[in-house]
Amino acid sequence: MRAGAGLVTALAAGALLLSACGPTVGGAGAIDTPTTTATTAASPTTATPSTTTATTATTATPTTTESAPSLTSTATAAPSPTAAAPAYLMTGGTKGDQVRELQARLKQLEWYDGNVSGSYDAVTTAGVRGFQSKRGMAESGSVDQATWASLTSMTRQPTKDELSNTLTPGPAILKQGSTGAKVRDLQSRLKQIGWWSGDVVDAYAATTAAAVKSFQDKRQIPVTGEVDQRTLDKLSAMTRKPTDDELNNVKPTAAPVSAAGLDPRCMSGRVICISKSSRTLTWVIDGAPQMKLAVRFGSEYTPTREGVFSVFQKSQDWTSTLYGSKMPYSMFFSGGQAVHYSSDFAARGYAGASHGCVNVRDLAGIASLFGQVNLGDKVVVY
Hints:
Structural class: alpha/beta
Number of helices: 10
Helix content: 10-25%
Largest sheet: 9 strands, mixed
Order of helices and strands: EEHHHHHHHHEEEEEEEHEHE
Strand order of the largest sheet: 6-11-3-4-5-10-9-8-7
Strand content: 5-15%
């Protein structure tokens, strides 16, 4: 089992750039950091991107065929109407029971992480903005009637325990002493997200209980080491059905990966080589490709930067500070842009886009890559 899941390594000197995918600037040179224990490594030198895409908004002058009014006209032009400010049910600074309900409902959809406080703070704003963004709404970060109606239609009424942050474990479905196929399935799923190492077995022993405790602790589930329905639902939502090979510890045979078409800058050292044209990520060591993963990028409005960079921060369990969305296995290489797993990419494919990050949809693949990549390893995006 991995010790220190959610590992976050300290970033190199200098502030991170504002990004929709990852850390945001908090004051001069400040950065929001995860609450997990940080491990500091020697700060690598981050290469300056070769290009920076900037978008400048321009306002076109409208053309009209209407004639100018006569100087002798006695008509008085009516004043231009002023657009009414949107009516918000809740916004930054709002406090009370409705905010508690908002936070509890956002938490059901994983757009809010933390205790329900009843205070509409920056984390709540980020969660609302993320919820709105995924549904094509105006990303105000405040709750209007349309946002509230959409949120309540997708969630249930929070319980008293949820509103008061009371965590009560449910009856154990699996626990120490359990055996059989369900235990193998549990261990296989834990292995997919890095909470189990070694072979999958039939017995629920102390090592399985320890892995379950760690999983529960990271997700605000009562830490018992036993699998109740809440734990099982959360684990199932984060993983896929294990294959027969995974359940029986059959080691996969890696298909050979060709170096054909890779950028020359990828052919020396340890490199995450990312091609926008082929939409692939290739992990290369001293010119020899090790693995290849399908990836997607940011949209034209939030493009993924191109150039030569290096990995300066890693986090296995990162949550975007701007949108509140999960970014497992994040490897940051340019400001807030990172290579990370995307459940949205896994579900919708290329119908969607990132906010600038490099999305990977193969959970097992990104978990393996995360374990191999070191701070300072080169990243080439072209």
